[in-house]
Amino acid sequence: LSELLNVEFYGEWLGLVAEFTTKSLLSWQWASNSVYYLLSLWSRLVTSVPYLKGDTPSLLDETVPKITEGFITSRINSVQASFADNSPDPDNPLENAESLQDQLESLPYLCRFKYESCSLFIINIMEPLLQAYTARSRLPASGDAAELSVIEGQIAWMVHIIAAILKIRQTVGCSQDSQELFDAELAARVLQLINITDTGVHAQRYQEISKQRLDRAILIFVQNFRRSYVGDQAMHASKLYARLSELLGLTDHLVLLNVIVGKIATNLKCYAECEDVIDHTLSLFQELASGYMTGKLLLKLESTKFIIANHSRENFPFLEEYRCVRSRTNFYYILGCLVFMEDGPVKFRSFMEPLLQVAVNLEASADAAFRTDVVKYAFTGLMRDLRGIAMATNSRRTYGLLFDWLYPSRMPLLLRAISLLTDEPEVTTPLLKFMSEFVLNKAQRLTFDSSSPNGILLFREISKLIVAYGSRILLLPNGTNIYRSKYKGIWISLTVLSR
């Protein structure tokens, strides 16, 4: 930048680049691929300002806010034209995470360059949208759905923009305390939105694409906000929480986490048929549970205690959805991490009660019933759940709790299932994957006492399963998909033996 300032025609050049950028932003239909490169140029110019020497004006103070406002306005205007049909569109940036990240990567540097005016501009756009969205929640569901979809699309863009700003922390242009106050003002609008999205008519719109886009945007905001202001590595931000307390009554980490976990629980309850939202929600939940400080804070919350105590299909319908079947393992891995943070077999046994009931019902089923879809789905679900819990055992103590729960009572069920359903890879694969995780000696968790026979007993039980599977699978004819029907199971069996 300092070299550019010394060029005679710098001012004219900057004006022409600004004009070209503005026109490109207005022509978003045809110049969407250029936005990344244009904003990257401006962000490079902005981040070079602190290193300038001399008194020559850079002219960026007047130009950059116009570019920033032009970008935000163009995103809002694009919604009316592109998203009103409320149908999935792979070219829609709100559907394409990679394209969205490219467009927003440089924006935070531009926004924070003149943060006060930029945050005021964002708030002035956000407030009318929030008011309209709140008003629509009180209207009957038979209202103008297309108009509501447009509002949701516009709010989703604003939430993504705020999330991108909070992801990057820099102090060019104003002090750290001032930045925290502006961060609080922007964050407050999204946190206020969280309280609206699941009320009134909005609680009936979980099938709508625009509603799903909005909730994904909120999850990204929460992830970025948490990394900056909540958790083990977060900065202590007294100014931010003081302002949030004034605006929303959110006084500290714990109160804020309660709002976040409440949203997580709502998503898991209501988005039974949307795998993307479920996976994104679980990703956020896992981030919170994996942090030492945030994990401990989570255990203090009533909303977390409810999830741990009521993790049944009745409370979380996504557990019954086949399209979300892979999410079960991650869900129970997270719950396992939280349960194992606290000592005590009593709490573990209480947590395992719903899974025990499933196992007991399966054990009571006749051999012929194992061929029915209901029983097969219940069994594979149990295997995926147990695999998630096994992944969460990272010590001798926690592994011992799961081992005692499984052996000797539950092991005959596994042997029976693999013997009866050897030709059903959708059953045998989850079972073998669970066994593969269960025998993995990570963090020396399989180290039993010298007087304990558990190591030998574990080897004996796993050997029974492998022999039962191997002796039957080799006799079966090769199907049309031999990898799925044979090779995959054999490969996992060999993995079990190698561990």
From TrEMBL:
Q: Which GO terms describe its biological process?
A: protein export from nucleus
The residue ranges crossing the membrane are none
Subcellular location per the Swiss-Prot or TrEMBL entry: Cytoplasm; Nucleus
What is the designated name of this protein?
A: Exportin-7/Ran-binding protein 17 TPR repeats domain-containing protein
Q: Its principal location?
A: cytoplasm
- Fetch the InterPro entries from UniProt: ARM-type_fold, TPR_XPO7/RBP17, XPO4/7-like
The entry's keywords: Cytoplasm, Nucleus, Protein transport, Transport
Task: Enumerate the Pfam families for this protein.
Answer: TPR_XPO7 (PF25795)
The record's Gene Ontology cellular component field reads:
cytoplasm; nuclear pore
